[in-house]
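It is worth pausing here to work through a concrete case rather than discussing structure prediction in the abstract. The textbook approach is simple: state the sequence, then state the predicted structure, then interpret. We follow exactly that order.
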Amino acid sequence: MSEKPAVKLDTKAIARAALELLDEAGLDGLTMRKVAAALNVQAPALYWHVKNKRELLDAMAQHIFVAAVEGLEAPRQGVDWRDWLIELAQRLRQSMLRYPDGARVSAGTFIDDEAMWRTVELTLRTLEDAGLARDSAERVFPILLHYTTGFVIEEQARTGVEYAENPYAAGQLEQAVDSGRYPRTARMIAGFAAVDPDVEYLTGLRVILAGIEAAPE
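Step two, the predicted structure:
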């Protein structure tokens, strides 16, 4: 059997290979050695492009973000700024969801790419055109990014892949709460277990956007 040819190494190729490995072992099982093996190179070859796992995670997060905002343009005439921001946030969520632990990869990373700066600039211009004060507009993108990352971390955790028995599965979550002692909590938990994550995410987005609009400048 012929050996798999080594690919041309660069940061993007390394990030793609690492993201593909998340299907096998998740973020906790990802190592530089495994990434090197997937690329058919020796591990030291990676260090010319990413000095450590921290830089590897930055590269992986950058790949996720760049894919999310590819083709993003300013809102067309007549498109409400809220709807434009919701579309942007949903793009980010879907890009993270393409990979197991995609949101954990993205959390706390540094993305140094034109796609990031262009997206932030578009967001600021859209919000200022909608009448938000500059200081208020500057808070919006970080809020949406952090909400989306945190939501998807929770969303992906609910798959329960690290548990012998998923505590978030239908019927399991409700059993964790004594409905006699905590009736309101039990009702909330039952609803939480049944909710569509798309609906839950969109509801949170709308609450955030309403709060941003109502907040004092």
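Step three, interpretation. The mean pLDDT is 90. DSSP finds eleven helices and no strands in the chain.
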